[in-house]
Structure formats: C-alpha cells, structure tokens
Design goal:
Blueprint (H helix, E strand, L loop, with lengths): L7 H4 L3 H12 L5 H4 L4 E6 L11 H14 L3 E6 L16 H14 L4 E6 L4 H12 L3 E5 L6 E3 L2 E3 L3 H10 L5 H11 L11 H12 L14 H20 L3 H4 L2 H14 L4 H13 L29 H6 L2 H8 L16 H5 L23 E4 L7 E5 L9 E9 L2 H7 L12 E4 L20 H4 L7 E4 L11 E6 L7 H4 L5 E5 L4 E4 L3 H10 L10 H9 L26
Parallel strand pairs: 1-2, 1-3, 3-4, 9-10, 10-11, 11-12
Antiparallel strand pairs: 5-6, 7-8, 8-12, 9-13, 13-14
Bound molecules: FE2/S2 (inorganic) cluster (FES).
C-alpha cells in the first residue's frame, strides 16, 4: 500500500499513545494484526427496535463485516442516532440534522479509513449521507431494502393504502375491526415501506448518485440477495480505501442531475427535493430548487409503482430494478458518471433490462407522460413550493378556489370533520405553521385528509397547500414546502378564509388575490404563531434551520470540515 492509512494515526503510533489505542481494542479479544496496517472500515449502523424499518440491520452488518474481512480490512461497527419515521415525535425530520452531526463527528473522531452506511427508513439515508459527505472519506451505502408486498384478502397492499383506508374508515365504508386487521397484512416482513415512498426514493437516489453498488435500491430486505449485496459492499469499501475514492469524486453536479432524472422516472417522493439539496450543500455542489422542475424535461413516469402507479418495490426488483430504469433513461442521463464500484453508471446498467413492461415501461410508451416535481413561484411562495405531478389530479392543474385556512395542525384536526366547516370541492385547503421553524421540524401533514362532508360526496382530491411536507407514500394535488414558511410572516402567513387562490401548473405559479393595501394592513396585525424553544437541540434547530428551498439544513453544517483531527489529548 503506497499511502498512509488514516487509522495509522491511532494504531500505528509508538509509545504511550499507540499502547492505549491498541490495548483497548485488544480487550475485545482482537489480535493486533487485525487492526494494524489494515484498512479500518466503520459500519455506521442505524439499527434500532424503535426504527422497525431498520430492525434487521445487525444481520446486515454481519454480512458487511464478512466482506470486509474477506477483502483484508478490519470492520468496526458503531451506532448512531436512528430515526424511525413511525414512532418518533414530533417528526423525524426535526432530528435529521442532529443525526447527521452524530454521523459526521463519529466518523471524524475515530480511526476509520472508510465507512459503510447502513440506511433504511426515510431520514436514516439523508442524515448518514450528509454526515459522511462533510467528512469525505471513502463511503459506500448499503440500504436495508423494502418490505415484501403486503397481502390482504387477495389484494396487494402498501403504505399508500393507509391513506385510502383512513378515508374509507372515516366515511364508514371500512369498519374499525377491518382497519386493524390490515395493519399486520401490510407490514408483513422486515424492511422499509414497500411503495415508492421516501425510503425507496432515497435508496434509488443513492443508487442513481453512484453511492451504492448496482441493484441496491430494490432488493427486498427479506431476500438473501440483500445480504450478498452487503457482503460485496464490504469487499468493495476496502478497495475504495486503497484507491482513495471519495464521495466528492462521485457526487458531481452531473450525478445530482442523474438523481433528479431518476426520481422523475420512478415517481419519487417530494422529500427527495429537500434531502438532495441538503446533501449537495454538504459537498458544495450548487443545486437550487429550480433544478428540480423536471416537468419541462420530458422525462415521463416509466416505473409503475404506488403511490403514482400500481406496483411495489418487490415488483421493481423482479422487473430489473433501478438499473433497468436507468438504462431506459440513457438518452437523458450523464452516462459517464463514476460510481462506487469504479464503473460508470452506463457500465452498471448495461447488462440489465426490463423483464416486466407492466412495471418498467419505456420512455416512448410511459405510464404517465407527466412526472416529477414541478416548482411553483408566486406571491404565496416567492422562494418556491413543490407539487408532485404524477400524484396529482390532472383536472386540478389549473384551479382557482376560495381558501379554507387552518392556522396550525391542531386547528385542522379540530375542525376538518365539523359540519360547520364552510368548504366545498372547489375550495383550497390551506395549512400554515408546519414549516421548519414554525412547527418545528416540518412534519408530513401536507396531504391533509379531506373534510368528511367532501368525502361523503365521493370526492377524492382537492387542492391542498402548506409549508409542510408530505409522506412519500401520499398522493393528491398537494402543494408543499411553501417558502418562506408562515412562521416568517410572508404573504402565506397572511392568507385568510375566503381569499381567492389560483394554482396554475402550466405557468408554474401560485398566487393569492389580495391587494397590497390589504396585505400591509394584515401584516401590521400579524404576530408569529409559535413560541421558540428556549433550550436544547430544538433551540439550536430553530435558531439555525434554513428554509425548505435550501434543504432545511442547519446553516453552520453546510460544506465539509474534512477528516483531519489536529489535536490529541493522550
Ligand atoms: Fe420507515 Fe416508511 S416508515 S420507510
């Protein structure tokens, strides 16, 4: 090996310091030759029984270790903060940046030459990648894989059905008992959500960026090939250390553009916009919200997956996986982008094909000509807002309606099913104060369930607008990530019941019809509707979080601080 291993600053030292570094490894029963002179590979593990999507990660880590040993490296597994989407309150997004700090500092502070990131549930992917990028040592991602497709009374189920079942339950169409039975039918194996929700979108993002081995995104968690991929990733990270292949070598502007195109073709989550922007901010690649407006790029929906389509991640894998999707996009992609295995993205997809045209179709015969995220601007959202085309209702793409305003999520919950609520199917539901600072943490509440009186009419979609996010499993004509958020006191904060709002997708605009004089008088009476936290992480978060269109990272975390440790206390 012609270069000095970073870990040799610990294990290769002479005298007292080296003694201490080595002795306290030997107490684990590890012989000196295992960690002396070999690439030391951290396995950053988000295993937690409170993150059910990642609860199988101890087994996965063992497969990674086997690969690292086989390639002549030395694995060291370490825990980091794990963010379970379903259980953590008030929202996992509040802690994405905190987890990224944990990852960054854990990697930099310890004797690692390379790192394997075990990612699964939604926020565990961006938080780990953001943290590792800020250190910039050789990094490979192993995703945990999706659950097997849910099964219920002869039909397939996934997380998106939760919203449908909830509507059916609230309208009386589905009994409480039946509603409960479907819980176990939907989540019937290890792994993350089986639809093209945020976790699956993040796994596809990683593969399209080139940060994982090919096929990483779609192999089901319960499929033995997931462990094979983990083993091979363990082998490859040792080589990456020897080649000094860094995240900054892979994460170029072109790689980010590839990820945006892939997310469009698969009907990926709107959360992708925020997380990819935050990752770009860590590696210093200029990426703005306008780069995400893929509606004009003519990339259609070619993966038929819920919530935009019919099938599940398991079906995507059997149909050829993400490589087959990327191959179909070859006319759009930057095919020369290098990936973690040292091959280009084109070399990686070349051997793959779609084996089921019901799941992966062609660009010339897509499932939906319109796909991806569009970016709206206007007096309601001067810095931008997003809408997922493939999940929206075409008839609502040009729509003017009267605002029905909820000042916060509690207000929404208290009044949405009230018989007194003045609303009809042409109304536009507006939810304020669910943005990064105002909530705080920007929860996934933007796809508000429709009022009961609207559901009772058989209506299934309305235009909904908020400064919050939407679960990647959600759907509907839902405008999200309004920036600046209501907590900052912009025009969005001043909207009242009965105001006329116009959504114009073709012209990418979202405006409210209020005169300047009226806005000025409302602004004089406006006060922020949130109480800032006075201590702890939430105080730090509210003081430093940026707006959604910038990735909602903490302002002081942007960029890299590298892997060097200059002080040594021993
Ligand atoms: Fe973990 Fe959906 S709850 S991925």
């Amino acid at each position: 090996m012609s270069f000095k291993l970073r870990s040799s600053n610990w294990f290769g030292k002479k005298g007292k310091d080296g003694f201490i570094y080595r002795a306290w490894m030997k107490n684990q029963g590890i012989p000196a030759h295992e960690f002396k002179g070999k690439p030391v590979i951290g396995i950053c593990n988000t295993w937690s029984e409170l993150t059910p999507c990642n609860a199988h990660f101890r087994e996965l880590a063992q497969s990674v270790k086997n690969g690292i040993y086989e390639a002549g490296g030395f694995p060291v597994e370490f825990p980091v903060m794990s963010l379970g989407e379903t259980l953590i309150k008030p929202t996992a997004m509040l802690y994405r940046n905190l987890a990224s700090m944990d990852v960054e500092e854990s990697i930099r502070a310890n004797p690692m030459d390379g790192v394997v990131l075990l990612c699964g549930c939604d926020k565990t992917t961006p938080s780990l990648v953001m943290g590792a990028c800020s250190v910039n040592i050789p990094t490979i991602v192993v995703s945990g894989g999706p659950m097997l497709t849910g099964k219920y009374k002869g039909t397939d189920l996934g997380t998106s059905d939760v919203w449908r079942f909830d509507n059916a339950n609230r309208s009386g169409e589905m009994s409480d008992a039946e509603f409960e039975i479907t819980e176990a039918c939907m989540a019937r194996s290890q792994g993350h959500c089986a639809v093209m929700g945020t976790a699956s979108s993040m796994a596809c993002m990683i593969e399209a960026l080139g940060l994982s081995l090919p096929e990483n995104a779609a192999i089901p968690a319960a499929d033995s090939r997931r462990k094979v991929l983990a083993h091979l990733s363990g082998m490859r990270i040792v080589e990456m250390v020897r080649e000094n292949m860094l995240p900054s070598d892979i994460l170029t502007r072109k790689a980010f553009e590839n990820a945006i195109m892939a997310n469009t073709a698969i009907g990926g989550s709107t959360n992708f916009v925020i997380h990819l922007t935050a990752i770009a901010g860590r590696v210093g690649v200029p990426l703005t919200i306008d780069d995400f407006d893929t509606g004009l790029a003519n990339i259609p929906l070619i993966a038929n997956l819920q919530p935009s389509g019919k099938y599940f991640m398991e079906d995507l894998f059997y149909a050829g996986g993400l490589p087959a999707v990327l191959k179909e996009l070859k006319q759009f992609l930057h095919n020369d982008c290098i990936t973690v295995n040292g091959k280009t993205i084109a070399e990686n997809y070349e051997q793959h094909n779609s084996y089921n045209e019901n799941v992966i179709s062609t660009v010339s015969a897509p499932f939906n000509k319109q796909s991806g995220v569009i970016v709206l601007k206007g007096n309601l959202c001067p810095d931008g807002a997003v809408l997922k085309l493939s999940a929206a209702t075409p008839a609502l793409m040009q729509h003017t309606g009267k605002a029905v305003v909820f000042e916060n999520i509690e207000d929404y919950k208290a009044r949405i099913d009230s018989a007194e609520l003045e609303v009809d199917e042409n109304s536009i539901l507006v939810l304020k104060n669910v943005g990064p600072k105002g909530y705080p943490g920007m929860p996934e509440v933007g796809n508000m369930g429709l009022p009961k009186k609207i559901l009772d009419k058989g209506i299934t979609d309305m235009v909904r607008i908020s400064d919050g996010r939407m679960s990647g499993t959600g759907f509907g004509t839902v405008v999200l990530h309004i920036s600046p958020e209501a907590a900052l006191g912009g025009v969005f904060a001043l909207v009242k019941n009965g105001d006329t709002i116009t959504l114009d997708v073709k012209n990418r605009s979202l405006n409210v019809d209020i005169t300047e004089d009226e806005l000025a008088s409302r602004k004089e009476l406006w006060t922020a509707a949130f109480t800032p936290a006075s201590r702890g992480y939430t105080y730090l978060y509210q003081s430093h979080v940026e707006q959604a269109h910038l990735g909602a990272d903490l302002d002081f975390l942007k960029g890299m601080s590298g892997s060097e440790v200059t002080r040594d206390s021993h």
